[in-house]
Write a structure and sequence with these properties.
Blueprint (H helix, E strand, L loop, with lengths): L9 H10 L4 E5 H15 L6 E5 L6 H9 L3 E4 L2 H9 L7 E4 L5 H10 L2 E4 L4 H8 L5 E6 L23 H13 L4 E6 L8 H22 L5 E3 L17 H16 L7 E4 L3 H4 L3 E12 L3 E5 L8 H5 L5 E2 L10 E6 L8 E8 L13 E4 L20 E5 L5 E5 L4 H5 L4 H6 L2
Parallel strand pairs: 1-16, 2-3, 2-9, 3-4, 4-5, 5-6, 6-7, 7-8, 8-9, 11-13
Antiparallel strand pairs: 1-10, 10-11, 10-15, 12-15, 13-14, 16-17
The chain binds pyridoxal-5'-phosphate.
Pyridoxal-5'-phosphate binds next to loops.
């Protein structure tokens, strides 16, 4: 059972919202740092261990800077994520660039920054060489196909568009070597939000075995394997969080039985996103309206443009009402946003305390949506002309820093040529 905590009282939230009106995302720097240190303690047992934070989870350079100061690098999947890394002072091999259907310009940008390029397909060996030049260190993404089961969010590996087949992997490294690459990595990412430690240990075992096979068949010794992301977080109070020490020990056992006997000096990289920031971020909103038809609804001042996971995958996000933590959950609500989509629901038939709304007078209760620190605002969008919320960081000394303001109508219209519109007949 994981306790769902929120670091502020209702009074503190009232004070904060006088300066920063809801809705907004709030991130807790202390929690992020302590969590980062726990991961480093657990996985520091491996040679050249490096966590490359998946920028897509929380693409904010302030967060990247915090993580860089904890020794983390980044995992980037696009041109702009590379720029964000650079903005945060992260360059060189601290960046892994795992893209797909990659334009030449993005490979060139990754090369400019000295990032480790992780190829998604055999044909990209030639494409990379032709368009950006072959780097000294290069990595390939493995798709085990039917050899590994996936999970609900990511799907089955054999139906996934990512990576090289086993045969392609065995052929890729000798080819890369003939083209001038000298150092090599291997990567996979086969699950998403997976809480089973056995699953992740099995993934590591699979990569270790492939690294050994590659050495035996081609004489090429990999410098590292990257175990990818996909470790789950306990979104539901009854979920059990992954124990980092136990997971690292399970992977170490596989390392000792497969990698060490083969005489390989294999470094370990990971690229977790969700586990790093997910539990330390909240979407803070207010209850605006209630509605009683065939069901009871609570309408918030935010919507799925800020947090799409519930609509996209039916994902569970815990909800609490500050000041009513001890009030019995005697109402059953659908907690909804204002988008013209019926799946814009943060919670469906959820037992909650009776919620007071702004429409009834007063400020309306705060509604705190938990575990919104990863793949939250990042997945946001502007459909229905909705403007995405800003982001606040609670510093370890208890002060707040706005690390992104809320979008304005001007931001939304910035890509329109207004002068052209005036001249347009
Ligand atoms: C290539 C790659 N690496 C890492 C991640 C991060 O995954 P998570 O946030 O679940 O750890 C993702 C997520 O989609 C990904 O696509």
């Amino acid at each position: 059972m994981s306790e769902k905590t929120f670091p502020l009282s209702k009074e503190e939230l009232e004070n904060l919202s006088k300066i920063h009106p809801t809705p907004f995302f709030l991130y807790d720097e202390k929690g992020i740092r302590e969590n980062a240190r726990e991961i480093t303690r657990a996985f520091g047992i491996f040679p050249r261990f490096k966590e490359h934070f998946a920028v897509k989870a929380l693409p904010n350079p302030y967060i990247l800077k915090i993580l860089a100061s904890e020794g983390f690098g980044t995992d980037c999947s696009s041109y702009t994520e590379l720029l964000l890394s650079e903005m945060a002072g992260i360059r060189g091999e601290a960046i892994m660039f795992t893209s797909n259907e990659t334009p030449a310009a993005e490979y060139r940008e990754a090369r400019r920054l000295g990032a480790v390029i992780n190829l998604d397909d055999f044909t990209h060996i030639d494409f990379l060489e032709r368009t950006a030049g072959m780097p000294e260190l290069v990595s390939c993404r493995y798709n085990p196909g039917p050899l590994k089961t996936g999970n609900a969010i990511i799907g089955k590996p054999e139906e996934a568009k990512y990576g090289f087949t086993r045969e392609q992997i065995l052929a890729a490294y000798p080819l890369l070597k003939t083209k001038g690459a000298k150092r090599f990595g291997l990567h996979t990412m086969v699950a998403s939000n997976e809480l089973s430690m056995a699953y992740h240990i099995e993934t590591a075992r699979m990569l270790f075995e492939l690294a050994v096979e590659l050495q035996q068949k081609t004489g090429i010794a990999l410098e590292f394997v990257n175990l990818g992301g996909g470790v789950g977080i306990p979104y539901r109070p009854e979920d059990k969080a992954v124990d980092y020490q136990e997971l690292a020990r399970g992977i170490e056992e596989a390392y000792r039985s497969i990698v060490i006997p083969a005489g390989l000096d294999l470094g370990i990289r990971i690229e977790w996103g969700r586990t790093i920031t997910g539990p330390y971020g909240w979407l803070i909103s207010r209850a605006l309206h209630s509605k009683s038809i065939y069901r009871e609804y609570i309408g918030l001042d935010t919507c799925m443009a800020d947090l799409m996971r519930p609509a996209l995958y039916g994902a569970y996000h815990h909800i609490t009402i500050p000041g009513k933590e001890k009030t019995p959950a005697e109402k059953i609500y659908d907690v909804v946003g204002s988008l013209c989509e019926n799946n814009d629901k943060f919670a469906v038939q959820r037992a909650l305390p009776k919620i007071d709304t702004a429409a009834e007078g007063g400020n309306g209760d705060f509604v705190v949506i938990h575990d919104a620190g990863a793949h939250g605002r990042a997945m946001g969008f502007n459909y229905n002309g909705k403007l995405r919320s800003g982001e606040l960081l609670r510093r370890p000394d208890g002060t707040f820093t706005q690390i992104r303001r809320a979008e304005t109508a001007e931001d939304l219209f910035a890509t329109l040529d207004r002068g052209g519109l005036d001249r347009f007949r």
